[in-house]
Amino acid sequence: MSIVIRDVREHELDSILALNNAAGPSILPLDASRLKRFFDAAEYFRVAERDGNLTGFLIGFGSNFGHDSSNFRWFREHHEAFFYIDRIVVASRRRGGGVGRAFYADVQSYAEVRYPLLACEVFIEHDNDPARLFHGSFGFHEVGQHVMPETGVRASMLTKELCSYTWVRDHYGDDLPDMPWLRRARQAAAPAQRSTGT
């Protein structure tokens, strides 16, 4: 069956919380209140369905967001503008089945008309070779390392240049055509909300 990527719905947050906290040491745990703040304010918060079942999610923020993650702050200190993938989680039974690739194709199509860089991190200490290989196959490369003060975990900081961004900015500036695929993934992510932080 095909993979469907769509915006998250509020009634799915309990399932997403369970999926996140079952993902293992490569994903930081969440509590319900923080996940609800992400739901209210994230610029991009989408889920994957396969065979009618929730199989994963991806949460992302633009560089102007007031995110309290030390990894996000690291990117803010090193790059002027970027789109940050805070987390991607795929259910263990679905890993290797194309869900992650579908998410990255979707988030790139969203980000590349708005930001010059796609940014994320992969934890180094947790034998994350599959994750590093996955990101490398998408054109990400390491631009530094960062030890998260809140956990002591070392992360490989990755970016990917979004080559379409310059052409889009040169031709459209901030006035993108009003087309469904160009609209914000989350209409609720108004600038005032994004500036409040999480």
From TrEMBL:
Q: Domain N-acetyltransferase, which positions?
A: 3-163
Against InterPro entries, the record matches this protein to: Acyl_CoA_acyltransferase, GNAT_dom, UCP028520
Name the PROSITE patterns on file: GNAT (PS51186)
Q: What is this protein called?
A: GNAT family N-acetyltransferase
